Amino acid sequence: MHSIDLLIFLIYMLAMLGVGYFFMKKNTGQEDYYVGGRSIGSLHIGLSVVATDVGGGFSIGLGGLGFAMGLSGSWMLFTGLLGAWIAAVLLIPRVKSDPAFAKFFTFPQIVGYLYNSITARVAAIICFLGYLGFTSSQLLAGAKLASGTFEALDLQTALLIMGAIAVIYTVMGGLKAVIYTDTIQWIILMLGLMFIGIPMSFKYVGGWEGIQSTLPDEFFSFSNLSWQDVFNWGITIIPIWFVGMTLYQRIFAARDVKTAKRAWFIAGLFEWPIMALMGVSLGLLSRVAVEQGALDGFTAAMDPEMGLPVLLSQILPAGILGLMMSAYFSAVLSTADSCLMAASGNLTTDLLGKLLKGKSHQSEMRISQILTLCIGIVAIIIAWQMTEVLSLMLYSYAFMVSGLLVPVVAGLFFGKDNSKAAVSSMIVGGTLTATLTFLEVSLPYGLDANLFGLTASLLTYISVYQFDKKFTPSKNSI
């Protein structure tokens, strides 16, 4: 990599740290640190939502899907559009217009309001573990990108560098730093892909003629996937819009219902078709380059998620490579920082909240920052042990969805308030999905473990609710 590229990259990273320092000086307490003062507009929130949801992990993951199956991989983010728009219509009016939620910082606080404090703590543990894994996936995405671009940088060293930058500016600046840097980072990524990455990759592989003569027709089809692929993506990604802590933080941060709904509609459109098609197209172009033998030392049998960074590192001229890498690192940071903030919010507000009672705003800030730093270090350690970005992301999503979706929907939309049923369904659903996933159990018809976890969660909720209603007619609590 040319020294000018490294200089551009270093300047960009220093700028991100500068934003974190700026907001560290402006934040006055947890209200600013975790929900941005509840006064942020729809465009900033919308871009932050899509940057968080798509981010580096899905960017690198989409490249891997494009490399492996072509344009059909874009359907994964169509489920993101559906989730965003359904949540805008159903969830946001229910949450944002309810005065009971007006002072909440986190998603488990809503669960606690719907049920009780023990239910909230169980939800917080599930959220915390899920977002810890999700943060790790983003740091791993950044490390893959860096090691695939900088020849002298191995994966572990890249992980330490990326982790340090993401953790430090998030620790300093809180949610305001996250949302405003997300806006900048997403604009940089979009412009980089549209005007640099795709055009130069297209030219490098010989244009449309080179692409058609290299790949089979199924790479250009939108049906080169199984129904199980679509079903598994849908059952994992759509529900996350109803249980995602990062998303609730942004609902709380929006000025009003109208602002939040508009932000969610903006986010959906950016997810699909815009980002979906750009991501898989770049992955497809990297596959063409590999098949043509144009990427030194890289074959189709190697990690498909590494094809995209290797392609960009070899085709972009000095100066342009630095800009493009900054764009992709933007995507990584935009998701890593949000997930880190979510995990920190769960730990600080929901699990250790009693320890902060009676302390000054300054003390709250310092404790929040220390805990955010500790979580970031643990996320780096987890990422160190993993190899595939997309799988780690989807595992984290599935764990949260199977544990949280049923009791949240029952409480928010059906007025159910049985805490025994809620806690039981959370534990059964989350545990079953995690067990099936980590044991790599072969499931029928290629279905995702999340389906079985969700089914178990629903049946458990109904069974406990009916049993408790029969033998304890009055409202109960644990």
Question: Keywords for this structure?
Answer:
globular, mainly alpha, 478 residues, single chain
Summarize the structure.
Helices cover 78% and strands 0% of the residues. The chain is mainly α and 478 residues long.
Uncertain runs are none
- The fraction of residues in strands falls at under 5%
Q: Would you report the number of β strands?
A: 0
By secondary-structure content and strand pairing, the structural class works out as: mainly alpha
How many angstroms does the end-to-end distance come to?
60 Å
Query: From the structure provided, what is the oligomeric state, counting identical versus distinct chains?
Result: single chain
Mean pLDDT: 86
The string of secondary-structure elements, in order, is: HHHHHHHHHHHHHHHHHHHH
Helical fraction: over 70%
Question: How many H/I helical runs?
Answer: 20
Largest sheet: none
Radius of gyration: 22 Å
